[in-house]
Design a protein that fits this description.
Layout: E1 3-4, H1 12-18, E2 48-53, E3 57-64, E4 67-78, E5 81-88, E6 92-98, E7 103-110, E8 117-122, E9 126-128, E10 135-136, E11 146-152, H2 158-168, H3 172-175, E12 191-197, E13 206-208, H4 209-222, E14 231-237, E15 242-245, E16 248-249, E17 254-262, E18 271-277, H5 294-311, E19 327-328, E20 343-347, E21 353-357, E22 359-361, E23 366-368
Parallel strand pairs: 11-12, 11-14, 13-15, 14-18
Antiparallel strand pairs: 1-17, 2-3, 2-9, 3-4, 4-5, 5-6, 6-7, 7-8, 10-19, 15-16, 17-18, 20-21, 22-23
């Protein structure tokens, strides 16, 4: 998704919900309320309200549009803990033998699926269920990102960016992303591969995303880059470039974005994942982060797109709310959009401290750094 400029703060929510990848591939209009998801694989459950405990039972309210349903939680004694069994009509069941750790941990499981997810409820008479803002829609993530920087002209901070991507992908900042696994993929730390100074570039300093995609496809055809399921290509632009995407302009509406290209006709892999990072000086200065230096704000914007590409890799070719979207919120967009422009610092694997943007954690229910 796009990292929106601060000057457009009044429309940040709108941008976050309406701009996923190229304009022609934005997801269709989705339900008006964010999903509170206790198990990402349960298609029939969209809005979970709260749990009310008593000595013998609990009720879980479910709201799905205007519909309402109730579930029963029957308490049964068991050695060393309490055993619960939950039924929501025929949608799913849950069972758990709770340890004495101050919390009940419930495993929610679809009737035809053995994969389980944990959701915590406090041991109180009335406890709200944790809101999982990001829901999994079936698309790919990047398991162990391999970053190759593409330099579009004489981009500023080229050598510093190599250290940034090397350090941040091998840090606790990436460890937090392990929660965003899929039925077939996990997310771990990544690596920086190399930088490529691009040649044969279009002569105009005003360039649209469609031209960027055409150029990237030419690099694949020429063998200059070899995309895989793990590769990510952040394109860092020299000062003076004006970039448009979906009719919106760099440093006017957005600070950066990430996208997807279907390259299955010219490559052994299906998708190419890329980011577009305009120079953060000039007209972007002051609107794309509040850190003390341009490089710090560039790192923040770059981390936003890096983590979104990792957790929602194929958003750029999504046309509906469903696969190939991965982790997504129909109101607020992707993992970085929810925490847009909230900055902090992390110590990279290379021992250097970098400014990054906070990212949303389903597990913590908050914007976090690690």
């Amino acid at each position: 998704m796009k990292f929106a400029v601060a000057a457009a703060a009044a429309s940040l929510a709108l941008l976050a919900s309406a701009t996923a990848g190229p304009a022609a591939a934005r997801p269709a209009t989705a339900p008006s309320k964010p999903a509170v998801v206790l198990d990402k694989k349960i298609a029939g459950v969209r809005y979970m309200d709260h749990v009310v405990f008593s000595d013998s039972a609990a009720a879980l309210g479910r709201r799905d549009g205007d519909a309402a349903a109730a579930v029963r939680l029957n308490r049964r004694g068991g050695g060393g803990g309490e055993n619960y069994h939950l039924h929501l009509h025929q949608h799913f069941y849950c069972s758990h033998h709770a340890a004495h750790d101050g919390h009940h941990h419930y495993h929610y499981e679809a009737d035809d699926d053995d994969d389980r997810d944990d959701v915590d409820f406090d041991r109180e008479a009335h406890t709200e269920a944790r809101v999982y803002l990001l829901k999994y829609y079936g698309g790919p993530v990047i398991s162990n990102v391999e970053v190759t920087i593409l330099l579009w002209g004489a981009a500023n901070y080229a050598s510093d960016l190599e250290g940034f991507y090397s350090g941040v992908t091998n840090s606790t900042y990436f460890d937090m992303l392990a929660q965003y696994y899929t039925p077939t993929q996990t997310i771990g730390r990544g690596t920086f591969v190399k930088s490529i100074s691009l040649t044969g570039l279009p002569s105009s300093k005003s360039i649209d995303d469609s031209a960027i995609q055409t150029y990237l496809r030419s690099l694949v055809s020429a063998g200059t880059i070899t995309p895989s399921g793990n590769t990510y290509y952040p394109i860092h632009f020299a000062p003076g470039y004006s970039i448009t995407q979906g009719g919106q302009g760099s440093c006017q509406v957005f600070c950066a974005y990430h996208g997807t290209i279907d390259v299955s006709d010219i490559s052994s892999t299906k998708y190419l994942y890329y980011g577009v990072l305009p120079d953060q000086g000039g007209s972007c200065a002051g609107g794309c982060g509040s850190a003390a230096t341009t490089f710090q704000n560039l790192c923040s914007v770059s981390s936003h797109e890096l983590v979104e590409a990792t957790t929602d890799a194929a958003v750029g070719v999504a046309s509906v709310v469903g696969s190939p979207l991965a982790w997504y919120n129909t109101n607020q967009g992707e993992i970085g959009d929810i925490c847009n422009a909230q900055q902090g610092t992390v110590v990279g694997g290379n021992g250097v401290t970098y400014t990054v943007q906070k990212e949303y954690s389903n597990n913590a229910g908050a914007c976090v750094l690690a």
